[in-house]
Each structure stands twice: as structure tokens, then as C-alpha cells.
Amino acid sequence: MIDYTPLYAQMEETPLASWLDQLPAQVAAALDDSQHGRLAEWRAILSNLPNVTPSQVNLKDGVIVGRPDELAPETFAQMESLLRRLHPWRKGPFHLFGLHIDTEWRSDWKWDRLKDGITPLNGRLVLDVGCGNGYHCWRMAGSGARLVLGLDPYLLYVAQYQAVRHFVGDAMPAYVLPLGVEALPQNLAAFDTVFSMGVLYHRRSPLDHLLTLWEALRPGGELVLETLVIEGALGQILVPEGRYAQMRNVWFIPTVPTLLSWLRKCGFEQEKLLDVTPTTTQEQRATEWMTFKSLPDFLDPTDASQTVEGHPAPRRAIVTAIRP
User: Fold this and answer.
1) 109 exposed, middle or buried (CB, 10 Å; 0-12, 13-18, 19+)?
2) Phi/psi at 9 (nearest 5 deg)?
3) In terms of DSSP H, where are the helices of the chain?
4) Is 129:213 a contact under the CB 8 Å cutoff?
5) Measured between alpha carbons, how far is residue 32 from residues 21, 85, 120, 246, 296 in Å?
6) CA-based, 20 to 30 A from 153: which of 29, 232, 234, 298?
């Protein structure tokens, strides 16, 4: 069962209420079984997950639900078998009743790099664009956000989120919607904090993406942006002609000064660099929960400072900025 009724009720009491004129129909269209050939299978997986009330839900130190001794061995095996059918798990990790879902990305490392540099999320309305399976949405809720909306149109990630929510329960105000950023109403001006992490370089028009995020923020709201960057001066940008680290849809990778200038161009103020970190094969790699190729396969085997295509290896910046 994929039910967003609790979300709609919460939105009625927020500046997001105007979106309710469109949102239920947008979600219903996205979750029509014709939208993905495996959606019915994923619904069946979700409906067969064991029902259990965990003794703890810890979203502050990770996504940690329950304890190892709370499930009978046969129930634990059932849960693990069903969750493995939602492969590949890319964002995480998750800890469910002692089951460690070791995802491709150590998304907790990214969270640790940004959490102390942003405006505290306590009591804030938060949007996470391109959120994947919602790992960071859970961490945002664990940091005290009033309501977190994640957007991701890839329905497998929505199914993974729903699987975790099945065990977390309905009390935590974090939701992943099966929608892209294009579903946002224009000039919404409602969110206190907007996250866009790992999205900008996939957009053919990065400035249009930044303007969309600007419109989603209320005046005084904060953007938290994480994206690929290259080293260099103001005005320099890498535009890969073919693939970048085997990704087909990478359009623009700026230098940090160029990225900050884009933010100013789009009307943001108080832009600030929080972190620049090269992506390592410890942070992104294949696991038994994501068995496809990963970063070690995308780097030059003789020179890890370059991708297999000869581009600079991935490095990621985190910046913040304010909508005045």
C-alpha cells in the first residue's frame, strides 16, 4: 500500500496547502501501474513485509530501526529476502532490526559533511529534490524538521522508501513523492530549506534548475546544493562530450567560483562554500546490496585522478545560499 493521505493532511496546515489542488492527481498518475512494468511486483513486496512495531527509531545517528532480537529468525529471513528484491540499493546505509543494508553510497558521510554548516532544520519545511530512496529525508526528519518532502520520479527508489517507512511507522514526517522537480508549482515560495544534492550536473540547463529551487524557497530560506565540481578559476566549466565516469547524462561541471557566480546570477545571496571532497572508492562502491559496476570501475585503472574517459575524477562541493 502506497498511501500519501497522512502527508496531505499535514500539508493543509502549512504554506504548501495550495499545492494540494494538484498534488493528489500528480501522485496518482505517477503511481499508475502502466508507468513501470515492475510496479505491481514492488507493491506486492511492500504488502508482504512483516508487521512489527520497533522498540526504537533513531534517525539522528543514522537510519536505525528496531533491535536484532525483535524479530524471529524466520521473520528476519522473510524481511531480508523481500528487501533484496528491491535491488539495487544506492543510497544509505539502513539498519533494520539488525539487518545492515550496505548501499552503494555512504550517504551518511555526505550528511556528516553538511549537517553542522547549514541552518538548523528544527521546525522547518524542507524539500529534497532528486532524493533517491529518501535516506537524507529521514536524516532531515531526525534533525527536527517539521515536514520533509523528497522528490524522485524513479519508482524503485519510491518503493525502497516505502519499505523503510513500513518499519519506521507514520510518526516521522518524511515523505518521498514519485515526482520530478517539474511537478513543483511555480512561485511556490514555501520551503524554509531546499536541498539539491547530486542533481545539478544532470540538468541540461543548470541555471533554470537553480531558478526553480529559488522559486520553491520562501524569502529568507536556505538552499543547500551539492554537485560535482572541477578545480579551476571563475568561468571555467567542464562539458563532457561523451560520458563522464560512465554516466551519460552529465552536462555541466563548474569550478567552485563559477558555481558561486551561478548562484548570484540567479538571485541568491550569502553564498558559502561548506566543503569540497574527492569521491573515493570507500564512499561509492559495489556491495551485495548493489552488485552493478560502481566508482572503482569508472576510474582510470592506472591513474585514479582521472575517469576512464580522461576527465578529472569526481570531486563534490557543498554550498549554501539564501533567497533574499
Assistant:
1) middle
2) -65, -40
3) 5-11, 23-30, 39-48, 73-84, 107-114, 135-142, 155-168, 206-216, 256-265, 295-298
4) yes
5) 19, 21, 37, 31, 37
6) 298
- Residue 30, pLDDT > 80, answer yes
Phi-psi region of 161 (alpha: psi -120 to 50; beta: other; left: phi over 0): alpha
Q: Judge whether 250 and 285 are in contact, CB under 8 Å.
A: no
Angle between the 206-216 and 256-265 helix axes, to the nearest 10 degrees? 50
Domains of the chain: 5-322 (3.40.50.150)
Task: Express each pLDDT in 162-219 by its tens digit.
Answer: 999 999 999 999 999 999 999 999 999 999 999 999 999 999 999 999 999 999 999 9
pTM of the model: 0.97
- pLDDT at 35 (0 to 100): 81
Tell me the sheet residues that pair with 230.
Answer: 255
Arithmetic mean of pLDDT over the chain: 97
- What the block records as the C-alpha cell of 46 is 511492500
Reduced to 3 states, what is the DSSP secondary structure of residue 2? coil
133 neighbors 91 (Cβ within 8 angstroms): yes
What distance, in Å, lies between the first and last C-alpha atoms of the chain? 41
